[in-house]
């Protein structure tokens, strides 16, 4: 499996891939501050953070669907270790 622990981020996504957005505590490394500061869609909606890639929108840009709605994933998200691929379609 690619992308676990943020050490080996996925470098590509395919339609149907099951992805997970890492916890904001992991992203920001500051859990104390997180309670006050984080207002991302995942925290605001108490999301499961698990989503599915539904569309490739262009170069290194994907539409994904989460329990709160659509979310755009870019190459930057992959490179920065925010995305784990749970299940690949192959
Ligand atoms: Zn957040």
- Unreliable stretches covering 5 or more consecutive residues: 1-7
Number of strands: 5
Main sheet specs:
5 strands, antiparallel
Can you list the strand order of the major beta sheet?
A: 4-3-2-1-5
Summarize model confidence as the mean pLDDT. Answer: 83
Task: Spell out the blueprint of helices and strands.
Layout (H helix, E strand, L loop, with lengths): L17 E4 L2 H5 L2 H7 L3 H4 L5 E9 L2 E6 L2 E6 H5 L3 E5 L3
Zinc ion (ZN) binds next to α3.
Question: What do you see in this structure?
Answer:
The chain is an alpha+beta fold and 90 residues long. Helices cover 23% and strands 33% of the residues. The chain has helices at 24-28, 31-37, 41-44, 75-79, and strands spanning 18-21, 50-58, 61-66, 69-74, 83-87. A 5-stranded antiparallel sheet has the order 4-3-2-1-5. A hairpin with a 2-residue loop joins β2 (50-58) and β3. The chain is globular, with a radius of gyration of 13 Å. The relative contact order is 0.30. Zinc ion is lined by residues 24, 38, 40, 42-43.
Provide a compact summary of the structure.
With 90 residues, the chain is an alpha+beta fold.
Based on the model shown, name its key terms.
alpha+beta; 90 residues; 23% helix; 4 helices; single chain; five-stranded antiparallel beta sheet; disordered N terminus; binds zinc ion; globular
